[in-house]
Amino acid sequence: MTRGGVPGLPPGTQGRSHLSLQVRQGAKRCLRAYAVGTSRWRGLPDYLIIGAKRSGTTALARWLTRQAGVSPLFPPLQGIKGVHYFDRHFGQSEEWYRSFFPLLGSRRGLISGEASPYYLYHPFAARRAAQVVPGARLIVLLRHPVDRALSHFRDERKLGNETRPLMQALEEEEGLLAPEHARMEADPSYYSFAHEHLSYAEQGAYALHLRRWLGFFPREQLFALRSEDLFSDPLPHLVRLLAFLGLPGPPRTAFTKENSAPRMTCADREALGWLDRRFGSVAEELSDLLGTRFAW
Question: N- to C-terminal Cα distance for the chain?
């Protein structure tokens, strides 16, 4: 390898690789500029998959875009899952948000949507969504909160965002996030990396987060489903989802897992006990809030 080169690339390919990256980035900028310029002829999402993180939203979002009645986000070849407009990018214009959706003339009889799983937990996402897309259908996948927290922790470790042992991360979470909550309340434009990525337990307080969304959207616009039910027996739940979205059945393609990982094995019995106690009443709270039985 030459000095300053990239490991794994043969000599002489460094410059070509960098040029190729620049070309791709330039092409993406041009496509986005075109999309923003044509935003007046673009619609807004018909549905939002709002969460929860590490609960199967990637698989569901991609499955939906393969249905006959659904348009993917623009440009289709990029395979964009979510725009994160109502959490990270609300400082952008509505024209910028519209730029991700298909031209109205190209989607007659079709619907489109996006999946940004941080929406469920973000303190302002529900209010912002109600301002921009009050008629949007909301879809939420809810995984067992202990399994969700473990998967979230494992993912952040894999990405290099987390170096602490699990129990330490759980014990320090409240103290870490309290000042982030305060700063977000004081400055709604502030983005908190810790709030999105290091909130293993807080993101599992599903009833609390859904109550915020139901303060802005009527219950009939929300489709809530346990991840375990979707993955163990997808067909009946997907048929119900298509009906909720006003799409004809049966499903066009089979449902397959995506972006999944083996279940985390945790030898930290103290952490597991802590999580079990933390989430002991989640299913009951969800059942009371949504009017349908939730149990794990």
Answer: 53
Q: How does pLDDT run across 34-43, given as a tens digit for each residue?
A: 999 999 999 9
Tokens 């999580």 label which residue?
A: 275
Task: Tell me the two tokens of residue 158.
Answer: 């894999």
Name residue 1's amino acid: M
Token pair of 47 as six digits? 């549905």
Residues 6+ apart with CB under 8 A from 248: 68, 69, 242
| DSSP codes joined into one string, 238-273 | HHHHHHHTT--SS-SS-----S--PPPP---HHHHH
- Report the C-alpha gap between 82 and 120 in whole angstroms: 13
pLDDT tens per residue, range 155-193: 999 999 999 999 999 999 999 999 999 999 999 999 999
Residues 276 and 173: their CA atoms lie apart, in Å, by 16
pLDDT of residue 191: 98
Report the pLDDT value the prediction gives residue 258, as an integer from 0 to 100. Answer: 74
Helix H or strand E encompassing 224: strand 222-226
One-letter amino acid at 218 equals P
What is the CATH number assigned to the segment(s) 34-145+204-261+281-290?
A: 3.40.50.300
The CA distance from 241 to 246, in Å, is 9
- Residues in the chain with pLDDT < 70? 1-19, 107, 259-267
pLDDT of residue 7: 46
Nearest to 131, CA basis, from 26, 217, 251, 226: 217
Sign for the CA dihedral angle at 158, 161, 163, 165 comes to negative
- Close Cβ partners of 124 (under 8 Å, ≥ 6 residues apart): 86, 87, 90, 184, 188
Nearest CA among 86, 296, 96 for reference residue 212: 86
Cβ count within 10 A of residue 146: 20
Q: CB neighbours (10 Å) of residue 22?
A: 10
pLDDT of 260 reads 60
